[in-house]
Description:
Helix content: over 70%
Amino acid sequence: xxxxxxxxxxxxxxxxxxxxxxxxxxxxERQPPSxxxxxxxxxxxxxxxxxxxxVMLGGLYKTYLTMHSLLVRAIILLLFYSxxxxxxxxxxxxxxxxxxxxxxxxxKFTFGTTKFSIKKH
Length: 121
């Protein structure tokens, strides 16, 4: 199992270096932004078609929801484990709670005081 984990980490790291270059070769007419660019997200959404934006943002939303629910389940599991085994898991629980709150606060800081409203027709 350890060897499988090491192989998966190596494969993942390799792909993270290979795929950005492959993307730039696939979309040479669009001039995709560099991964190191400060405004990478805005620039990549600007050059994407509406269908691509829909797919990307839908995938990001599903990933966010999945990670959020898995982390909440991990907290519950750690609570039960802490009760059953008399081994305190507070550090792990607090770490997961902090990780859960980071995206919410980064969105709040990113948009600042911008107000969003939904218009009813």
